[in-house]
Structure formats: structure tokens, C-alpha cells
Please model this.
Amino acid sequence: MASLCVKRLVYTNDQEEIVKGVCSNFLCDLKPGADVKITGPVWKEKLMPNDPNATVIMLGTGTGIAPFCSFLWKTFFKKHDDYKEDEISFNGLAWLFLGVPATSSLLYKDEFEKMKEKAPETSESTMLSAEQTNKKGEKM
Model:
């Protein structure tokens, strides 16, 4: 048995239609004690794309960034058994979108800089929600 905390996604789009998130609404509509089958990778801590030149896009927030940092480090600095002998490591594009409230909340800055030195095609896009201001310069 597992207990989850899920925020239900419901919003109105530009066409004034109500849009509901598929997974969050499914989970929120379950009755307590309902059986749900969950599947995923077994016996692997991360799965590399079959193509070492693939594009990998990741979304992370706050302290939830730790698994992505580990994934990226292993992606660019470790040999992968899934790749052929002449394909030493991942050569594709890795793009991480990181959302945090403030610059002071950014984690693993030094590690990301080292990864960018080794793999310049690695990209990190940071969104700072609490540092945004409106036209008057006030916090949003």
C-alpha cells in the first residue's frame, strides 16, 4: 500500500475550455484502497536511450533535481554497457529545465558547470519563480 499527495491539475485554456490533467485527475478520483498497477524500469537505476546521439529532456524542481544531477553525471562521465565499444559515452543533447523559487535555491551549480565543459551541448534552463517582477518592479 502507498500513500500519495497529488495536486489535481485543472485549468481554463485560451479557448475558455476546462482542461484536466490526465494522471493527476485519475489518481485524485481513485477511491481509498483502490488497486493500481504501476510499472517501470526494473533492476536499473537509469535507462539510457538506445541511440547515444539522442536528445534527452528533463524537468526538475528544487530538491527534486538530485536524481537528474546524478543521471547527467553518469551520462557524460561513465561508460555505458548498452553502447557499442566505439561509443564510449552519451554524445546527444541533454536539456534540463530547473524550476526554483530563488537563485539561492539553485543546487549543484559547480557540477553543472563541469558537465557543460565536457559536453557543451548540455543545456540548463533555470526558472526563478519568486524573483520575477511585474511592470512596476514589484514581486509577482
In short: The longest strand covers residues 93-100.
